[in-house]
Amino acid sequence: IPVKMDEVLGVLSLCEISDSLLMWAHYGMSHTGFVLELDPGHPYFNARRTDQDEFGHLRQVRYRDVRPSASLIDLDGTEMFLVKSKEWSYEREWRVLRPLKDAHNIVNANGEDIHLFQLPPDSIKAVILGARVSTTLADQARLAISGNSAMTHIKLLR
């Protein structure tokens, strides 16, 4: 089941904290990348069509000693995307599940398809640059924000 679900379901993984050294090391390209500070109250993060809708809304990851097996979970299979081992609890992760067919764009990186979903500019509060970010990337971020009237509210932080 997990392989099939990975072919149709995308996961946006988010973190409650922006200053975790481990998170920057693991996911911020060793401090050379950036973090987007998002507005969790924005409608983009609560796009459920019904109360039973599993997609399009923020859901807190649960950390457990034992992860669920595909044979024991609910029939839609989303539970396996929302539970992680307790060892990862420092991440304080939230996730949004979306059907991959709704992706705005698909790019190939190292033989893997990456499905991209367009974030509304008003859902972005800030761009936080890593401690070791290149001048080129910092300049690109500055230009992207200042050159788009829909993004001028976004703070550029370091």
How would you characterize this protein structure?
The chain has 158 residues and is of the alpha/beta class. It has one domain (2-157). Helices cover 16% and strands 29% of the residues. The protein contains three helices and ten strands. Strands 1-6-3 form a three-stranded antiparallel sheet. A hairpin with a 2-residue loop joins β7 and β8 (112-116). The chain is globular, with a radius of gyration of 17 Å. The mean pLDDT is 90.
List the helices and strands and how they pair.
Layout: H1 2-8, E1 9-15, H2 21-27, E2 34-38, E3 59-60, E4 62-64, E5 83-85, E6 93-99, E7 105-109, E8 112-116, E9 124-129, H3 135-146, E10 155-157
Distance between the termini: 42 Å
Radius of gyration, whole Å: 17 Å
Low-confidence stretches: none
Largest sheet: 3 strands, antiparallel
Concise description?
With about 160 residues, the chain is α/β, with parallel strands linked by helices. About 15% of the residues lie in helices and about 30% in strands.
Characteristics of this structure?
29% strand; 10 strands; globular; 158 residues; 3 helices; 3-stranded mixed beta sheet; alpha/beta
